[in-house]
Amino acid sequence: MNQKLIYPSFIDLDDDFIELEYIANSYLGYLKNAFQKISKKKTVLPKKSTVVTLSLQNEWIGKLNDFLNEIKKSKKEAIIKSNNLIDLLQLEKAKDASYYFLRSLSGVIGSLVTATDWQSPGFNHSLYSEAGSQTGKTIATINDYKRDWHLNAQSYEKEYVKEYVEAPFKFLLRALMTNSGMAAFTTIFNFLQMQGLIKSQILMGKSCYFQYKQILKESLKDKVIEVDELKTEEIINRIKEIKPSVIFLDSLSNSKYIPVPNLIKIIDYLKHNYKEEIYLVIDNTGLSVNFQPFKLLGIRGKIHLIVFESLMKYVHLGLDRVTGGVIVAGGADGGKLFECRKHLGTNIADASVYAFPKPNRYFLKNRLQRLQRNASFLASSLQSFLAKQKKCSVKRVIYPGRGSFFNLEFDKNHSNTKNYNRFIKIAVSLAQKNDFQLVAGTSFGLNHTRIYLTSLWSNYGIPFLRISTGTENIRQMEVLKGILIKTMEIF
Fold this sequence. Notes:
By secondary structure, the protein is of the alpha/beta class. The chain folds into three domains: 3-132; 146-359, Type I PLP-dependent aspartate aminotransferase-like (Major domain) (Aspartate Aminotransferase, domain 2, 3-Layer(aba) Sandwich); 363-490, Aspartate Aminotransferase, domain 1. It has 13 helices and twelve strands. It has helices spanning 6-41, 47-80, 85-113, 151-164, 181-194, 210-220, 232-242, 263-273, 293-297, 331-344, 361-387, 417-433, 474-490; strands at residues 173-178, 202-205, 224-227, 246-250, 278-283, 303-310, 325-330, 394-398, 405-410, 439-440, 450-454, 464-468. The two termini are 25 Å apart. Belongs to the trans-sulfuration enzymes family.
């Protein structure tokens, strides 16, 4: 064990406990706010259920306060015991235990906050209110059916724009929560279709997310023109030639070769040269708050920008407890998307809102920085190893220098799902022998590194092996580096 890694690993852990403290305080704030609201309305709510709900809320407020005291103790130990490997290992386990506790608790929080509420809240009553904590705030035909719209998401949506979106005249933008990232996409796509905005051919990045690629190609057929995300001039020339009504691009593609389009240059071209009405739709899941397209575009009447992302990846701060998505759009588009979300039934569930910690730019940026640091470290370390090998079934590491995941490219003889799964099995087995948590599973942005075979069952994507790094400290990254190098040697 390199002793020089111990102190920076303690620094990492201190940041981790600060993040956990923030998540716990978010949940505590949700519970306290609900407790106060229900307490004020209890005289008009059904007595027995209200008493039980308030008692449970109070109980969990106490448990969260106890948990916060434990976190504060762990933070203190991370500072005091900053040169001892045994203490480091104990705090690593304490971080994991706290993380698992909090992510399990997120479902309880949402249930308790909305326990007295109704999906169809009443706006008036003769004996008892059937609007729960939202008694007095329900307006007939406006917010009396939560599938259409609910007050639970409204506060989060406003905070999302405030914390995570940079733009001139930001007050013109609105965020809309959906029940998943794909629900955000289908809402946008149906909005474009229903409003008759897909008037001509559209451009789509050929490496865009395979699920929405399938929707576009099977719905629009010959109207879809694929472009190579890395050929910026070619994209601009295609815009000039065919004058597309819509462009779909990912800020960082979740595909085999992970291309990152030069959206800065593409947006600059549209901003200064394009005179036609056009919609630019960006899936910003891969970069999140680290890419700010509204700031780049500014206010341009004929260029409509719609940005969406899966909230489950980065914004959820690794909890992976509920699905969720968000759309950000400006002006009249925002209002029409709101109506479209309502009619499509893609709104997020009321209880799910409270699984997401209150938006906070500092903590999201800090988390993204850690994830990218770990991905960059692992990708460069593995590539350095491969460069020295005369013979290895893994040809190269594919990593664009941004984001939290990279892919492994194998030689022709081993580029098949059977061998990908064998590689994963070896890696997980070695991790177990090294007492290291490595998960064979999908998604990215979580606390523990995941290794996964993705795009397996699609005709619109090439299967590939992805490694998405977690928030492990630098000591743990060294251990994982050794595990993956050994896997390559055995494989």
